UniProtKB/TrEMBL annotation:
Phylogenetic lineage: Eukaryota, Metazoa, Spiralia, Lophotrochozoa, Mollusca
Highest rank taxon of the organism: Eukaryota
Pfam family of the protein (one): CHCH
Regions of compositional bias (Polar residues) in chain numbering: 103-115
Keywords: Disulfide bond
InterPro entries the record matches: CHCH (IPR010625), Ribosomal_mS37_met (IPR033620)
One of the GO BP terms on file: mitochondrial translation
Stretch list, region Disordered: 92-130
Molecular-function GO terms, alphabetical: RNA binding
GO CC aspect terms: mitochondrial ribosome; nucleoplasm
This protein's name: CHCH domain-containing protein
Domain CHCH positions: 50-83
Length: 130
């Protein structure tokens, strides 16, 4: 015989006791509404660009005892990758200055979010009943 069987035989179980009225009303401590503005911050998920190309170039240098002439192809690939990464960063910065989201991002810039929040202000505490 299990212990639960003994317990249930000695004291009857009342159903739905967890739904009973506890005798107090929920008090709103903090208003469940958004603020009317958001802080401006940039999402810095900066990863080092061209890590694979740099690793290949350094590996080539190590194999050839740091001979620049033999590893010219790897160095040129690394430099081309860095130039492309810098151009992409420049475009991203220009888009951020104009207030546009980055490519592939669904997040709005903070100034646009502030404009939307100003257009539709949040309710005040007087709208809530205690």
């Amino acid at each position: 015989m299990k212990l639960t069987d003994v317990y249930f035989k000695t004291c009857p179980v009342k159903k739905f006791t967890n739904y009973r009225n506890l005798g107090y009303k929920y008090k709103v401590v903090r208003i469940p509404a958004l603020k009317d503005s958001v802080t401006s911050r940039q999402h810095n998920t900066e990863e080092a660009p061209c890590v694979n190309e740099m690793t290949r170039m350094m590996d080539c240098w190590k194999r050839t005892d740091f001979n620049q002439a033999i590893c010219g192809k790897e160095a040129s690939v690394f430099m081309a990758c860095m130039a492309a990464a810098e151009a992409e960063a420049k475009v991203s910065k220009e888009r951020a200055d104009k207030g546009l989201p980055n490519k592939g991002s669904s997040l709005l810039p903070s100034n646009q979010v502030n404009q939307l929040l100003a257009k539709y202000p949040q309710p005040t505490k007087s709208n809530f009943k205690d």
